[in-house]
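Morning. Coffee machine broken again, so started the prediction first thing and wrote up yesterday's gels while waiting. Chain of 258 residues, entered below exactly as on the submission form.
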Amino acid sequence: VLREGKNTGQRMILLITAPTDPASVETLKPHLAQLPHAALIWAVSGKISDVATSERMQILSGRGSIEERLKINGGNSERTLTFQISPHSFFQTNTSGAEFLYSKIREWLIPYAGSDLYDLYCGAGGISLAVCELFRRILAVEANPAALSDAQENARGNHISNVSFFCGRVEEFLRNPRGEHSRSLAVLDPPRAGLHPKALKELLETPFSQLFYISCNPQSLVRDLKELRKCYKMLKIESVDLFPHTEHIEVLVHLCPK
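Came back before lunch.
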């Protein structure tokens, strides 16, 4: 797995193998290390899977993470944010596209500034940090511990203090929210599979007054919208070509209760 910070020039090589003799990995190090400015990490997975995860990791050279910088526009302001990206945490693969996407989300959220915001499936905190100064407080939820750790570090590194991060499944968090917060505004950025049925159920039973759904899979988005329209109506939709030269697109949808 290769990851690159386009605005920082930092690169990561994540070599994922089945359990093997470390000596066999050592023979590859000189060849992999020829890529400049790269962190080299060996990850071991004993599972048969097409998902790039591992049970343990060893840093062979460089750091255990890389950084990327994003310029976020929206309204009359421009902010530059620095993000830490660890091997297994989610971060948008297209830096220029991510800058455009987060700026567009910020533009859509500006009219609702001053309230509380739920950032559901927050990943490494990209959306929360891009819009943080617009809101009184943000509750960000993520089930992946590695991504959540990056999100917390990214908030500290960018001197942001009004975002509270929670590790757990979105459907469980919505069923048992932490503290008393207004459920007026939420941003959803689920994985390609879309919303868990239990998360959909919670969104229908206790609707948000404004719901912003970001999807990287139009098929799962259509399936979820068929359910959400039982309670919500669509106000606006826009696509972003985040994956050039492929058939894939990112889609933003603004919903509110009927």
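The chain has a mean pLDDT of 89. Going to sketch it on the whiteboard this afternoon.
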